[in-house]
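Section 5: illustrative case.
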């Protein structure tokens, strides 16, 4: 929902209108998924074991989509007390990862995972993510901040956003 609100702002569209349209779409999508779920349940009873297994898989996917849409519908981008919100996480992810790492040469630096000695830079930095070709360590700017400063996710987001 946050990215939809940001897009509405970018295009100068009334945010309340955009949110109400998105909610209408999500409610419609949930109804469609519930209908699919009913259809799958009706098919379930009269089929062989393999078909039932495949239908169960389909039901799991439908339920996952329904939960995702319901979660987005209940989204509130308002801060309560000391909590972080989705927009804080998005802002933290936009923080330049290069500001946290040292000795960057040609998009590579020494690995910070501590899993191995790193005489030659083995950690690649691209598009706000890192990947170490020696040990497989990977992550975004929040993961890097957490590793360097030995802190939890919420603390890392707050510091990167400046809260």
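Designed sequence:
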């Amino acid at each position: 929902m946050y990215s939809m609100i940001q897009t509405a702002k970018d295009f100068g569209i009334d945010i309340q209108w955009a949110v109400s349209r998105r909610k209408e779409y999500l409610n419609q999508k949930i109804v469609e998924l519930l209908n699919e779920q009913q259809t799958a349940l009706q098919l379930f009873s009269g089929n062989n074991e393999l078909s039932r297994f495949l239908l169960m898989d389909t039901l799991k996917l439908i339920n996952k989509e329904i939960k995702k849409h319901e979660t987005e519908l209940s989204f509130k981008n308002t801060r309560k007390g000391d909590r972080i919100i989705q927009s804080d996480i998005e802002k933290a992810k936009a923080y330049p990862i290069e500001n946290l790492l040292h000795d960057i040469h040609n998009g590579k630096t020494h690995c910070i995972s501590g899993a191995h000695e790193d005489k030659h830079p083995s950690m690649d930095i691209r598009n706000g993510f890192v990947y170490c070709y020696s040990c497989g360590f990977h992550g975004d700017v929040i993961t890097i901040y957490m590793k360097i400063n030995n802190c939890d996710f919420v603390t890392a987001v707050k510091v990167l956003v400046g809260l």
